[in-house]
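testing teh design pipeline on a random one, pls ignore if ur not involved
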C-alpha cells in the first residue's frame, strides 16, 4: 500500500466515524457510557479475533503489552470524553478533542525527537482552526469539562502514535482485536462495579450492532491498516475530517444547518488535507 492509498483509507475512516454520530446520540438514550463502550468494543473484538487467529496465528509474547496499552488508552480517552460532555457543550468538546492533531507532532518532537516540518505544523494549525469554527462557530468558553476533554485529546494523540508504532511489530488484525477486547472488558468491569443496567438493550441493541460493526470493527481496523503506511502527522490531520463528515451527516439526517463560519472551518480542514499531500510529494 502506498502512502496515498493509506491516506485514502484514513479518509474513509473519517467518513465512517462521522456517520456514526447520529447513532451514538440515539445510543446515549439507552446506555451509560461504560455499558455502551463495553458492549460495542467486545462485539468488535469477538468479530475480529477469529479472523486474526486464522490469518495471523498470533503468539503470546512480549509484544502483546502494546495491545493491552492501546486498549487502556481507548478506555481512558472514551471515559474522559464522556465525562467532559456532562460538563461542557458538544461544540467545545468537538473542538478540544480535535486538538490531538496538534498534540501528535508535538509529542513526537518532545519524546521521540522526530523532525516535524513546517508544512505539518501549518496543516495541523489549519485543522485545529477549522475544527474550532466548525464546532463552535468561533465562540468558546473554557471550564472543568473542557479540561477533561483536553486530557482526552492528549490520550487520543497517544493512541494515534501508538498505533503507528505498534503495527510494525504486531499483526494488524491481532492488534485491533486485542485492543477492542481490552477496552471492552475494562468498560464492562466499570459498568458492573457501578451497578449499571443492561435494560437498554431492548430498545438500543441496534446501536450496539451499528457502532460495534461499522465504526469499531471496520473503522478502527482500517485506521490501523492506514497508519501502517501513513505517517502519524498525516493520520492526525486526515482523521480530523471526522468533524466535517459529522456535520455533513448531521445536515443529511438531522437537518442541522451549517453557519457561514462553519463552512469556512470545513474549507480550512480540506486545505490542511491538501497540505499533507504536498508534503508527501516532497514539494
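output:
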Amino acid at each position: 500500500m502506498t502512502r496515498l492509498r493509506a491516506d485514502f483509507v484514513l479518509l474513509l475512516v473519517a467518513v465512517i466515524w462521522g456517520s456514526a454520530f447520529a447513532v451514538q446520540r440515539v445510543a446515549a438514550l439507552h446506555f451509560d457510557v461504560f455499558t455502551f463502550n463495553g458492549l460495542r468494543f467486545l462485539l468488535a473484538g469477538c468479530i475480529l479475533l477469529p479472523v486474526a487467529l486464522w490469518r495471523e496465528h498470533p503468539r503470546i509474547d512480549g509484544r502483546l503489552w502494546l495491545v493491552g496499552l492501546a486498549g487502556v488508552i481507548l478506555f481512558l480517552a472514551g471515559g474522559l470524553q464522556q465525562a467532559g460532555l456532562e460538563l461542557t457543550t458538544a461544540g467545545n468538546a468537538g473542538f478540544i478533542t480535535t486538538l490531538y492533531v496538534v498534540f501528535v507532532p508535538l509529542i513526537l518532537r518532545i519524546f521521540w525527537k522526530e523532525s516535524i516540518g513546517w508544512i505539518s505544523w501549518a496543516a495541523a494549525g489549519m485543522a485545529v482552526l477549522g475544527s474550532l469554527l466548525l464546532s463552535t462557530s468561533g465562540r468558546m468558553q473554557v471550564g472543568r469539562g473542557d479540561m477533561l476533554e483536553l486530557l482526552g485529546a492528549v490520550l487520543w494523540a497517544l493512541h494515534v502514535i501508538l498505533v503507528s508504532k505498534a503495527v510494525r511489530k504486531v499483526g494488524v488484525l491481532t492488534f485491533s482485536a486485542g485492543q477492542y477486547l481490552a477496552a471492552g472488558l475494562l468498560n464492562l468491569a466499570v459498568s458492573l462495579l457501578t451497578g449499571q443496567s443492561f435494560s437498554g438493550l431492548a430498545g438500543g441493541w441496534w446501536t450496539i450492532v451499528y457502532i460495534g460493526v461499522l465504526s469499531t470493527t471496520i473503522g478502527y481496523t482500517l485506521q490501523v491498516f492506514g497508519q501502517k503506511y501513513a505517517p502519524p502527522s498525516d493520520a492526525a490531520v486526515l482523521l480530523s475530517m471526522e468533524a466535517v463528515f459529522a456535520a455533513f451527516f448531521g445536515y443529511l439526517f438531522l437537518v442541522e444547518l451549517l453557519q457561514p463560519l462553519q463552512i469556512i472551518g470545513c474549507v480550512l480542514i480540506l486545505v490542511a488535507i491538501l497540505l499533507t499531500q504536498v508534503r508527501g510529494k516532497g514539494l
